[in-house]
Specification:
Na/Pi_transpt; transmembrane helix; mainly alpha
Length: about 325
């Protein structure tokens, strides 16, 4: 029983994460070299920052990667902290693009996409090779999803697992914490969401518990950013904690309304996987749209919460520096 669960879980997760890495590498080589320039140049207003965050997350296939890149640019002094709040809001919505694509159930195209991707990878032109990497990455993602589905049947038959999730269905907080911890461990909110989709489609989870896990996954993605901010300047720490606090606040605010969110997604589609994807999109869209007009206030609040402890130079010190310089 344990082998029949762990084997497809491990192999499927490896396929999925490796596919995400391959796709991200391909996109990075195609457009990633200009990403830093775009982020530095087109973040003058919160709305520009928002679109840059959204596009960058789709290109890099990881909100954590974009947040870490933002931390690096802030630490280098290329962009200011106030410019990054819009980027953070955009990354949250950008992650839903991958989830929506995954929910379309394109697993039957996994092997053909993988073969086409490998064939293009063997071509001499760098652009064609990178395109092949992206296509092969998508193929691996769908192959991983197909493999992960194999663990659903033994899980469904496991009384221990059923009782565990029956217990968690009585408390959406357990689902939220599960999503946070699992995503922090594997560093992929998309993978957590895909596994949740599989369990929901086999009726192992209730919709409310599944949505709580997805909200937890949103929070868990912040773990990488917090780690990346260690040893950096204050502005970089502000970026990491702004991302974390925003996602935590969104999850806590939405938690009492999971039933209503489930009803809305059920109205839009009858597919459980699509319901999860649409719910995540609705959640992130509402959170981002509500916060976007208040970006300056959010930035000031974070700067007040995590102040720059460096004391500004006194007028005398400035005068001495000018005289000696």
């Amino acid at each position: 029983m344990i082998v029949s669960i762990l084997a497809p879980f491990t192999i499927g997760l490896c396929f999925f994460l490796f596919g995400m890495y391959a796709m991200r590498t391909g996109f990075q080589n195609l457009a990633g070299k200009k990403m830093e320039q775009w982020m530095a140049r087109f973040t003058r207003t919160p709305y520009h920052s928002f679109w840059i965050g959204l596009i960058a997350t789709f290109v890099l296939q990881s909100s954590s990667a974009v947040t870490v890149l933002t931390i690096g640019l802030t630490n280098a002094g290329i962009i200011q902290f106030a410019q990054t709040v819009g980027i953070i809001l955009g990354t949250n919505l950008g992650t839903t693009v991958t989830t929506e694509l995954v929910a379309l159930k394109l697993e039957s195209f996994a092997i053909p996409m993988l073969l086409v991707g490998v064939a293009l990878w063997l071509m001499p032109r760098p652009t064609v090779r990178c395109t092949g990497l992206v296509i092969a990455g998508f193929g691996l993602i769908f192959l991983g999803i197909d493999t992960l589905k194999l663990m659903a049947k033994p899980l469904e038959q496991s009384e221990t697992f059923r009782s565990l999730f029956l217990e968690s269905s009585h408390s959406i907080w357990i689902g939220l914490i599960t999503g946070v911890i699992f995503t922090a461990l594997i560093h992929s909110g998309s993978a957590t969401t895909v596994i949740t989709m599989g369990l929901l489609s086999h009726q192992i989870l209730s919709m409310e518990t599944a949505l709580a896990i997805v909200l937890g996954a949103n929070v868990g993605t912040c773990f990488t950013a917090v780690i990346a901010a260690i040893g950096t300047n204050t502005a970089s720490k502000q970026v990491a904690w702004c991302h974390t606090l925003f996602n935590v606040a969104g999850a806590v605010v939405f938690l009492p309304f999971l039933s209503q969110l489930a009803l809305v997604s059920a109205f839009l589609t009858s597919s459980p996987s699509m319901q999860i994807a649409h719910s995540q999109t609705i959640f992130n869209l509402i959170c981002s749209m509500v916060a976007l007009p208040f970006v300056p206030q959010i930035a000031r609040f974070i700067q007040w919460l995590i102040p720059d402890k460096r004391k500004p130079p006194t007028p005398t010190a400035v005068w001495i520096k000018k005289k000696t310089g």
